[in-house]
Design brief:
heterodimer; A: mainly alpha; Rna Polymerase Sigma Factor, Chain: A; Arc Repressor Mutant, subunit A; 2 domains; 10 helices; B: mainly alpha; rod-shaped
Chain lengths: 168, 203
Amino acid sequence: MTWAIFHEQVLPIRHKLYRFALRITGSVHEAEDVVQEVLEKVWKSSPEQVNNVQNWEAWCMTLTRNRSLDKTRSQTLRRTAPLEGVTERSSDAFNPAAATESSDLVQKVKSYMQDLPDKQRMVMHLRDIEELSYEEIAEALNITMEQVKVNLHRARKTIREKMVELVK
Amino acid sequence: MKYEEIQTLLDRYWEGETSLEEERSLKAYFNAGSIDARLQNVAPLFQALKEEQLIEFKSKAKSVSIRPQMYQWAVAASVTLLLAAGWWIMQQDAPTVPMAAFPAPLPKQEMLEPMPDQKESMESMATIAPQKPIVNKKPAKKPVKRNTPAKNAEPDPETAIAMAEIKAALALVSSKLDKGKKHAVQKASYLEVVEKVPRKKEG
């Protein structure tokens, strides 16, 4: 890995990686750790790996997804034994309301997005927040284009239904 | 954009048929302010998406290390300042002036009074500020008397080094700690006054 590639291709997308990690882990601290680890891993990647990368953003997103899922799984394993049945979130849980002064409705929509099944949540995040193409999402999540479209459609449908209920 | 256009885009958005460009238009419309009343119920979604786009990564390494580093500098600078100032005062007064003749330190309130040009850089303060205590403030005249016995002495190179250290320490303090800047500037100007008095007499 050269400094030029790292500086031009990887560093500028660190915010995207962080938001994606935050979406998956739901924890500010975990997401920060994930991004640090991913950046470190990319920096230490071998010349062969560097040569094989076609799309840096998609590759980094894949690394971020994998690392975030690992963290989430290990966190779940750690917590299920002693804290079975406890549903409250950890103290460092991502709390959008604390960061912004948006309306209650906006906060509700954010929580609906966070409650989506993993794959739908990731697809909707990469499309509607990070504005990736279907091809890039398919590459980042290692799924087919058809799966991307299906998951995006389902995610938006769920959000729409919940918003209709909210207004009633 | 007209209501009909947005509604058409929305219908396509729910079906997953919009392009990235069209989706950006929807976000722009719902975050611009003037939203058609019939579309208000959808606005929170696009406002939420926009807000989420603004979240940024702040490196842990930076956020953890900056503050302790700042305090280390501040502590180091303060200790250097105190030691150098103490040593310098001893050098100036000890050989010639009996203890009883030591002037009372400047009254506290005088020292804490904000200088009119305190926001200026250290360099400009060092040259401009010292004039004021001499001319305008009575207590500053005391050091004049105190230093007269040493007026014919050659400038001591060690004193010059000490002064340079004091200046460097003060510059560090003022650059690292905004809170300490006001006091540091005042101390610097006081020390400058004390130093310049013999030179003036010589001139």
